[in-house]
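Quick log. Single chain, no ligands specified.
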Amino acid sequence: MKWSLDQLRTFIYVADTGGFSRAGERLFLAQSTVSWQVQQLERQVGSPLLQRNPNGVTLTEKGMAFYLRAQKVVTANDEAELWLTQNTVDRQIIRFATTDCYASCLLPELLERWKCQFPNVQVTLDCSFSTGIWERYKKGEFDIALAQHCPSDINAEPIRVEPLEWVCARQSLAWQQSTVPVALFEHGCPDREIMLNALKGAGREYRVEFETYSYGGLVAAVESGAVVSALPRSTIPSTLKRLDSQHRLPRLPSLNVNLASPNKSSNAICDQLYDAVMLHLTGDCPSLSNSSEGDTKSALVN
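-> predicted structure:
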């Protein structure tokens, strides 16, 4: 019997996740490809390995025995690849740039999976404000960039619409103050100016109580209950609540998040990481075709 490591790995993911679609998301494969690989494996084994049902899949008795052995084979292969990686001088480096918000909230799971798939590649992650990212991208400092506020002269793909939303701690009443206390990212962050211009345009008085460069610092300040701030919707932690016009705060625009790579067509590894990021980030947000940074068609949540 001849089966491939890809078949064994796919079978293990299906068993672990309990379904073909979930395994496909983890492996960055279409559901049809995952199903086909498992069917081919079952054909080679000569017996069903999975019990299909409306709620997913479970291992058959023979499937469980095969699963344990498949794990050993895949683990041994991964250990061998890791050993080779550790003893290889020439490692490819991918320079990845994104904002601190997205690095903290959207990428950890993706990068962990990707590193397991490509252990011989070193990813350097640079976190900056979006304007700085695109300026350095133009100078050729990054292989892949993910950020909002992309200049029109950069060839980038719009992949998400991110509503920018006011937030405060769940029990906070800071928004009720006649002069609203705000926490902001430091100068250089475009979102800072968006927030302040919105408050000025609405005639809402404010005072800056806290400034920081980091996402974690901003969240900590807001969690204290003393200030309000604004964050992209996908980066709002469960410890904070969203605010809107009912809380006497002006509506904020949605932001276009763009993904770009100057080496996508010429570097196979860079191309695969780019596609993995694209798939990961377009799974729960609408793709963009012709949107601008001032697009406000995604409303703030009540």
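The chain has ten helices and eleven strands.
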